[in-house]
Amino acid sequence: MFIVHVFIHVKPECVSDFKAATLANVKNSIQEPGIARFDFLLDADPNRFVLVEVYRTPEDPGRHKETPHYMVWRDTVEHMMA
Fold this sequence. Notes:
single chain; alpha+beta; three-stranded antiparallel sheet; 3 strands
C-alpha cells in the first residue's frame, strides 16, 4: 500500500464548485484498479479539505494522474485553491 494525503485550501467562493468537481473525480478514481481507497474529507474549516488516496503500489499515483478524469479535475479546480 502507498498512501497519499492531499491537504487543500479552497477559496470560499469556490467551495461548492470544488466539491462537485472533486466528487466526480472520486467517483471515477475508486474504479481504477490501482486504487484501494479514495476518501474526500471536509476539515473543521469549511474551506479546507483532505484527500486520502490509498494506492496498491507506489507506481499507481502516477497512473492515476494520467487518467482523463484526473486531468479534468486538475484543470477545473486549479484556480479554486487559495
